């Protein structure tokens, strides 16, 4: 019934949208509308979600904004996607965020929606972007100052998550004085929460393990940024900026286990302390030269990024069968340094044409250690067989060229990118060496044709070839004991995944879009679960023969009343994966609708509803997700302040459930987080100075950072 209700709601929201005439100005591959700006505008190779001055600008964190933005989908574990199951690369102000999915999710929660200007969604990235983004790119652009003098914001939030509190505060400041522009920001979050979960595993011989656990989270996160821009002249600019975050993530697991063996039943308890302290920083120096007034430019960028993580996992278990009682501790610190340099040149030609070319070099040095220790008579004794010390070095040399032209009402863009990868991994313990050298060509083509200029109707077609390189940690030949019945194992034999993606679509009245897409991957990388030693489940990433995915994406707004607007999305796709000798296929659907109602001189009300049907991830099936959020926002202090009261998962329907089957072994996982929350937030904006033109600050980092935390 929930599925049917969601489909009916989406159809109602998509029907009957009357096109309103607006004054438009058409530029090369982009439509801009004067007056009240639309939430979404489109180019030939991407679309842009304008967060500033929209309902999404009020009292959300970065993950909330992505979840509620048109055309984006966020899974329960924080995995962000544009289509299907392949995760995206996230950039913030041209800097690629190099973290694991969990770390990235936690980092984005420290960002404030009040600091976000817009989001660029690029399903098939063109040649000027690195090829390592098979799921596309989501680019978050933070606000820039618009006034001479000082502008800034202050924010504070308190949230009740079941019996545990969440609190955060932050500020941002921009200062513009003639040729100088200085900016910075800081956010801090203290997040306490309590989870419950259970895992039931059935083995081929009918033996059975049931694990009920609680998880007490005590997390703190900090995010900061600062930068200086100096204009030597109207055409020459130099920019230096620094971004960073550090967190302390403390989790304690308490488990009660029942192990039903063929001959008897064993019971036990286990306590685990998982402590992580990740840190990340990036410093970028860039120079930009605007060569002429028709679009020619030169940009040179140098970047250094550093990532480190202190991590320990301590498990003490006691069973009614004393031989099974265990105590072990695993220490897994890691450090990563990444250096990059690049130059990008754009030449504007007559006849509304552009030629782009660029070159880039990246070097990555990573060191991670695994120290495994067993508990013996109250002391910790190192286990050499499960310990390792691993060095990994990687060099990338990349270059590209592209050509763009506007022919009457048709915009054309074609590019070709080449990337050479050389890497070496070395185990200081075993002496094992891993070497990989490969080169790839990555073409892309984009065509956008306007059918009716006045009505804003157009069709588009694009193609791109992309690559997914293995995460650094996945290449490490380690064996990490998670608990008595689960291990994580590295795979030094992983090869890069290659993906070909094609997309065709139709845009109606500039706001309503329907897209058909198809993706085909070879050497598909997926983490699967399988039984190894007695009752132990191994989780390891492997290459599989292939993966295909095709689907339909629909998005569009609807103005129900003058002050009542909705934005709606639908994603329907079928994914097929060949996992060794098993082929797994599933059709999935995702629906969402976001309603905003402006109650004049009283408050703004927003309502968000999302439904995701069951999905397949490698050899795991994720069950459906359904939830409803509502919020109330009131302007105060002469419209410079906003107070927001919001409730998430209003009906407490959000569940995380996953079933994994492999060689007659079934793992049934369930987790319930405190998703039904009540939150109160306050934002105050201040400014002093004269208005000046909006300024774009260019910074960059290479795609390698996305694998730093992995």
Count of helix runs: 4
How would you sum up the global shape?
A: globular
How many DSSP E strands?
40
In terms of quaternary structure, what is this? single chain
Sheet having the most strands: 30 strands, mixed
Structural class: mainly beta
Give the low-pLDDT segments.
Answer: 1-36, 691-710
Average predicted local confidence, pLDDT: 86
Q: How far apart, in Å, are the first and last alpha carbons?
A: 40 Å
Strand content: over 45%
Residues in helix, %: under 10%
**How big is the Rg?**
26 Å
Describe this structure in words.
The protein has 710 residues and is mainly beta. The chain has 4 helices and 40 strands. It has a 30-stranded mixed beta sheet that branches. The longest helix is centred in the N-terminal third of the chain and has 13 residues, at 2-14. The protein starts with a helix and ends in a 22-residue tail after the last strand. The model is unreliable at 1-36 and 691-710 (pLDDT under 50).
